[in-house]
Design brief:
Strand content: 15-25%
Number of helices: 13
Structural class: alpha/beta
CATH architecture of the largest domain: 3-Layer(aba) Sandwich
Distance between the termini: 73 Å
Mean pLDDT: 94
Number of strands: 14
Number of domains: 2
Helix content: 40-55%
Strand order of the largest sheet: 3-2-1-4-5
Oligomer: single chain
CATH superfamily of the largest domain: HUPs
Radius of gyration: 25 Å
Largest sheet: 5 strands, parallel
Order of helices and strands: EHEHEHHEHEHHEEEEEHEEHHHEEHH
CATH topology of the largest domain: Rossmann fold
Shape: elongated
Length: 406
């Protein structure tokens, strides 16, 4: 795109060294006005320093938004209704944050009359795809600037040299190569790169950001109870609370009990495999509790169909298609399945384990009268099973007779 076409850009800005360099690069390369957007998604960092640094770099329009409630209620909870796991393991903590950030970037672009948005994702990762697919779905005419794909910097030293030229403060610990990269929000913390690049090597203990080691967790189990309404967690230990408040408390329980660590090699959308270490303490608890709630409230057919749809749903989120019609179609089906997923689940948390010990619902499909080994008093006639077996065995017996012929 012609640089002269860009007069104002909204930048997804963390306040860190990389996005500060991007900010100045946009000013110098495009000669444009820059608006910064910093989202509080529960990453646990003080965000006001981002405002101070943006002001130091001459930014007049600075947005720092607390989006924690929206993040959990409108993005994380809908995803958890599906029990979404990418490649059977990953709880999609980074993936689900990107559409919310993109949505707000587009809103701010419209509010401020900006021509473009910009992000700090690299050209090797998934995030560039997630940011940009979401942006184009919300505004097909928006221009997107991805500096890591465009600039001529070849090394960390080039970036440091640029920062020093424009008097951007460079913390001492940022002058060398970072030992690994970290992305965090209320749902998870992810660590990738450098010391983690060899999948044969165990991650160093210092990689873990938000959980104690399971081996160092308390020797006694922690007991909790989660209340659900229509598939969403609404109470903890009998106390109703907002989505973000509840999730923060689940994170505390998970952190203290060493829950939610995974070390995986995943298939990126851009085509390569990457190794990551993820910590999802509260999410791991919530997933187990939600599945337990569904176990007594979902019909077998609906539950099994949900499990068949889940990998496709998870892949859509991982690949950046949150705002696609197919994800919305799947969400509608998933949400319909959750109408009676209401009740309570009791759990014990112990040294990295989430143990379901009880579940109850006013809409339970579980019937003690049907499953009892005692006299069932006509609730279930065991003789009926013979017909079921005989009919289902018909094709198997037919095949066996045919194949027995020499």
């Amino acid at each position: 795109m012609a640089h002269g076409d860009i007069k104002k850009v909204v930048l997804a800005y963390s306040g860190g060294l990389d996005t500060s360099i991007i900010l100045k690069w946009l000013q110098t390369e495009y000669g444009c006005e820059v608006v910064t957007f910093t989202a509080n998604l529960g990453q646990g960092e003080e965000l006001e320093p981002a405002r101070a640094k943006a002001e130091m770099l001459g930014i007049k329009e600075i947005y720092i938004d607390d989006r924690r409630e929206e993040f959990i209620s409108d993005f994380v909870f809908p995803m958890f209704r599906a029990n979404a796991l990418y490649e059977g393991v990953y709880l999609l903590g980074t993936s689900i944050a990107r559409p919310l950030i993109s949505k707000r970037l587009i809103e701010i672009a419209h509010e401020t009359g900006a021509d473009a948005i910009a992000h700090g994702a690299t050209g090797k990762g998934n995030d560039q795809v997630r940011f940009e697919l979401s942006a184009y779905a919300l505004d097909p005419d928006i221009k997107v600037i991805a500096p890591w794909r465009d600039w001529t910097f070849k090394s960390r030293s080039d970036l440091i040299e640029f920062a020093e030229k424009y008097q951007i403060p460079v913390p001492h610990d940022k002058r060398g190569e970072a030992p690994f990269s970290v992305d965090a929000n209320m749902l998870h913390s992810s660590s990738e790169g450098k010391v983690l690049e060899d999948p044969a090597e165990e991650p160093p203990a210092y990689v873990y950001q938000c959980t104690v080691s399971p081996m160092e967790a308390p020797d006694e189990a922690t007991e909790i109870e989660i209340g659900f309404e229509k598939g969403d967690a609404v109470s903890l230990n009998g106390e109703k609370m907002s989505a973000a408040t509840l999730f923060a408390k689940l994170n505390d329980y998970g952190r203290d009990n060493g829950i939610g660590r995974i070390d995986l090699v995943e298939n990126r959308f851009v085509g390569m495999k990457s190794r990551g270490v993820y910590e999802t303490p509260g999410g791991t608890i919530l997933l187990q509790a939600h599945r337990a709630m569904e176990s007594i409230t979902l019909d077998r057919g609906a539950g099994h169909l949900k499990d068949e749809l889940m990998p496709r749903y998870a892949e859509l989120i991982y690949n950046g298609f949150w705002f696609s019609p197919e994800r919305e179609m799947l969400q509608a089906a998933i949400d319909l399945s959750q109408q009676k997923v209401t009740g309570t689940v009791k759990l014990k948390l112990y040294k990295g384990n989430v143990i379901v010990v009880g579940r109850a619902s006013p809409y339970s499909l579980y019937s003690e009268e049907l499953v009892t080994f005692e006299d069932d008093q006509g609730a279930y006639d065991q003789k009926d099973a013979a017909g079921l077996i005989k009919l289902n065995a018909l094709r198997l017996r037919t095949l066996a007779k045919r194949d027995r012929i020499k």
